[in-house]
Design brief:
It is built from four helices and nine strands; from the N terminus they run βααβββαβαββββ. It is globular. Strands 1, 2, 3, 4, 5, 6, 7, 8 and 9 form a nine-stranded mixed β-sheet that branches. The chain is α+β, with helices and mostly antiparallel strands.
Length: about 180
């Protein structure tokens, strides 16, 4: 392994944004998970990059959300350069972020993604019903990871932004309000 995981620094921001834009394209803004990030800064202490020979190979960010009254995290985007996939960079970034989130006392992490990939680090489907995600999400793609015993099973309610960091955001939703 020649790449290393480091905390994301402000000088990484433009490279991270370019990587995410190149992988997910402009359609990413229409997805419900992106709308939860709108007007919100990531949890900077949980933002990591994979660097190899001064080149950004991947990145991960986590965002504050609520599920009903319970604070949680939303993972994503997880982005790895397409020609670097299969080297363990994405899994390594997730493992680092998960360990740090657990160390900081977070209880649960949610994401929308593919179980065969994210299940490799412990994510499991979250039943739709007790947890309502804003906007459409395919059954089985809303995944959760319990960082504290019983935390995932106790989730109930609408998923909403954990905070608003920017004065203007597209929906204008207040803190903790569903979008």
């Amino acid at each position: 392994m020649e790449w290393e995981i480091r905390p994301e620094q402000s000088d990484h921001a433009s490279a991270v944004e370019a990587l995410v834009a190149g992988i997910f394209g402009p359609g990413r803004y229409a997805k419900a998970a992106y709308r939860l990030r709108e007007g919100v800064n990531p949890v900077y202490s949980l933002s990591f990059v994979a660097i190899e020979k001064h080149t950004l190979r991947g990145s991960i960010r986590f965002w504050p959300i609520f599920v009903g009254p319970a604070p949680a995290l939303l993972l994503g985007p997880l982005a790895v350069q397409p020609d670097q996939r299969g080297r363990g960079i994405g899994i390594g970034l997730m493992q680092r972020g998960i360990l740090e989130a657990e160390r900081l006392g977070y209880r649960t992490i949610l994401l929308v993604g593919d179980l065969p990939y994210y299940g490799r680090v412990g994510f499991a489907p979250v039943p739709l019903g007790p947890v309502s995600f804003p906007g459409p999400v395919e059954r089985g793609r809303l995944l959760g990871l319990r960082l504290q015993s019983g935390a995932l099973e106790a989730l109930e309610g609408a998923v909403a932004r954990g905070r608003i960091d920017h004065a203007v955001c597209a929906s204008g939703a207040p803190l903790g309000a569903p979008i």
